[in-house]
């Protein structure tokens, strides 16, 4: 075990990869948690595709730099998000349908431009990321995005919780409810861009959604959800990177997301709020609530052996 | 009694559809106004207009004491996320979510303020008769328990005006009676309560004024004058035979099951 770690960490690119994914896990965990809680899991996926043309145009016109990635991606992401919001508000289309229409156009345009320009960036690393080629600028981008994300969450956490749990109440209590919504979407785009280089367009959302949905099966509170989501994301990254190192032909992005998927499946089976809770009978908290609020004894639906 | 809000010459509706016009009334502190009407007559829109979420077609609101920082609000439960992972005490604390957020050392003012808020949460849970549920996750609550928790949240808002949109739609009789006693207590504390209801009997007992919407009109006044059978039929709240059944037999007035437009 230690020999493996020693060997792996003797390579500078592996050390960088571990640092990069650790910072990334800190940053994407809260974003992923609220994507899931706000029922925006699929919208997150759509946004990941939507920023593709911006990033591609940035690459084609300004070269492979972090600045071109950031500027192009932000323009495309904010553009698609606000256009989708506009269509949902002013036309008959609902939000999911307008976002789906726009991101499909954006994704097609992105791949089309990338191929037509005969770009030097191989399509595969674009779609699935290349964690092995992370440079200083990418690390700085990651650190910057993580800092902005954590500070924003410190400020936004309370309104985010209220607006997610009870949107109508939240709207009634604040003059500018859209600030929270749009601020969160901006954080989403920033984190997608940060994850873009390491995980690629297709895998970027994986590290947000899967640890968050897995944590949902264990955590009864927001604090637990956030903390556990981070732990799961970190575990997925570290194990995924190691796998990708041991099997040299495998890309790191899918390896990380597959490990996250494994954590998710285990959580479905074992978590107290998944099937695990049902197999073990009513959970302790639930049983306590039953006895406290009603005098009727609880009979287990599957038998009388309790 | 001083007015919390004065409504002047109000018209409400959407482009192409006017729900009612020329409504003027004062909502006084300590008063309870029942808002009645058939589905689609503008009851919820009226409440949202008071919150500032819906703009009136014309007319204005005057807040003699300034628009309050917080307006107590209990919405219909359709958009509420019951699977959200928080405990009941956190849901109740949401009523004061603007207050303070950062946790600091034990000696700081923020920590004291946070502790004072937790005390208020405990008191509100006690008043709602659910102190034993404080640490339960939300998804284990029954409809009646959740409604009690939401009433406790309104208490945390400490608002001079409280708007309740169909608060009894999912609760049993004994819970309703208890929630009505909480409303009576709020009135005693000088808070104005606006109550959107379907059930006539609770209105008669616990509100002093009524606003009947429907048929393109809005009628406001004392409960006894507004709830005349002829008016209820004319504004589409009751059918003629329902009104006949309710008002011809005195005993029927005490039956608490009459719902409009069934």
Keywords for this structure?
heterodimer; A: 306 residues; mainly alpha; disordered C terminus; B: 262 residues; alpha/beta; Rossmann fold; 6-stranded mixed beta sheet; 9 strands; 23% strand
Largest sheet of chain A: none
The helix-strand sequence of chain B is EEEHEEHHHEHEHEEHHH
**Unreliably modeled segments of chain A:** 283-306
Number of strands of chain B: 9
Number of helical runs of chain A? 15
- The helix content of chain B is 25-40%
| Assembly context of the chains | heterodimer
Mean pLDDT of chain A: 84
CATH architectural name of the domain at 1-71 and 197-262 in chain B: 3-Layer(aba) Sandwich
Largest sheet of chain B: 6 strands, mixed
> Helix/strand-derived class of chain A?
mainly alpha
What is the general shape of chain B? globular
Average pLDDT value of chain B? 84
Number of strands of chain A: 0
Question: What does this protein structure show overall?
Answer:
The complex is a heterodimer of chains A (306) and B (262). Helices cover 79% and strands 0% of the residues of chain A. In chain A, helix 3 (41-50) packs parallel to helix 6. Chain A has 15 helices and no strands. Chain B is 35% helix and 23% strand. A six-stranded mixed beta sheet of chain B has the order 5-6-7-3-8-9, sandwiched between helices. Chain B is of the alpha/beta class. The chains are: A mainly alpha (306), B alpha/beta (262).
């Amino acid at each position: 075990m230690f020999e493996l770690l020693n060997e792996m960490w003797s390579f500078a690119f592996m050390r960088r990869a571990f640092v990069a994914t650790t910072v990334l896990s800190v940053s994407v965990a809260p974003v992923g948690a609220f994507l899931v809680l706000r029922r925006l899991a699929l919208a997150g996926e759509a946004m990941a595709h939507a920023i593709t043309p911006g990033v591609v145009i940035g690459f084609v016109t300004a070269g492979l730099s972090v600045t071109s990635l950031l500027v192009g991606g932000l323009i495309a992401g904010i553009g698609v998000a606000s256009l989708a919001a506009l269509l949902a508000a002013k036309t008959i289309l609902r939000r999911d349908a307008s976002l789906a229409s726009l991101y499909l156009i954006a994704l097609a345009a992105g791949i089309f431009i990338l191929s037509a320009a005969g770009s030097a960036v191989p399509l595969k690393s674009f779609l699935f990321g290349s964690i092995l080629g992370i440079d200083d600028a990418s690390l700085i981008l990651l650190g910057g995005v993580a800092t902005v994300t954590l500070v924003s969450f410190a400020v936004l956490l309370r309104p985010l919780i209220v607006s997610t749990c009870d949107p109508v109440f939240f709207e009634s209590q604040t003059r500018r409810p859209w600030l929270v919504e749009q601020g969160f979407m901006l954080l989403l785009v920033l984190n997608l861009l940060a994850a873009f280089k390491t995980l690629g367009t297709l895998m970027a959302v994986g590290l947000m959604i899967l640890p968050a949905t897995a944590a949902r099966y264990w955590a009864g509170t927001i604090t637990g959800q956030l903390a556990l989501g981070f732990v799961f994301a970190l575990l997925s990254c570290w194990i995924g990177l190691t796998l990708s190192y041991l099997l040299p032909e495998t890309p790191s992005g899918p390896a990380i997301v597959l490990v996250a998927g494994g954590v998710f499946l285990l959580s479905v089976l074992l978590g107290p709020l998944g099937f695990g809770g049902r197999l073990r009978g009513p959970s302790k908290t639930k049983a306590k609530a039953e006895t406290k609020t009603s005098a009727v004894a609880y009979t287990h639906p599957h038998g009388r052996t309790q | 009694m001083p007015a919390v809000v004065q409504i002047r010459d109000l018209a409400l509706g959407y482009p192409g559809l006017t729900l009612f016009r020329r409504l003027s009334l004062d909502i006084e502190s300590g008063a309870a106004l029942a808002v009645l009407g058939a589905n689609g007559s503008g009851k919820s829109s009226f409440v949202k207009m008071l919150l500032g979420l819906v703009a009136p077609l014309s007319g204005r609101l005057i807040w003699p004491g300034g628009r309050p920082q917080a307006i107590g609000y209990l919405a219909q439960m359709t958009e509420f996320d019951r699977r959200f992972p928080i405990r009941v005490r956190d849901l109740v604390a949401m009523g004061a979510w603007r207050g303070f957020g950062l946790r600091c050392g034990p000696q700081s003012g923020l920590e004291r303020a946070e502790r004072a808020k937790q005390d208020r949460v405990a008191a509100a849970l006690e008043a709602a008769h659910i102190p034993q549920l404080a640490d339960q996750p939300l998804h284990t609550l029954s409809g009646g328990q959740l409604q009690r928790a939401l009433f406790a949240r309104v208490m945390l808002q400490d608002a001079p005006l409280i708007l309740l949109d169909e608060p009894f739609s999912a609760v049993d009789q004994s819970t309703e009676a208890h929630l009505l006693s909480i409303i009576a207590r709020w009135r005693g504390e000088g808070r104005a309560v606006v109550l959107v209801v379907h059930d006539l009997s609770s209105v008669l007992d616990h509100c002093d004024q009524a606003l009947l919407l429907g048929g393109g009109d809005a009628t406001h006044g004392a409960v006894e004058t507004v709830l005349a059978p002829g008016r209820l039929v004319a504004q589409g709240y009751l059918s003629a035979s329902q009104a006949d059944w309710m008002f011809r037999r005195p005993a029927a007035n005490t039956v608490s099951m009459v719902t409009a437009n069934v």
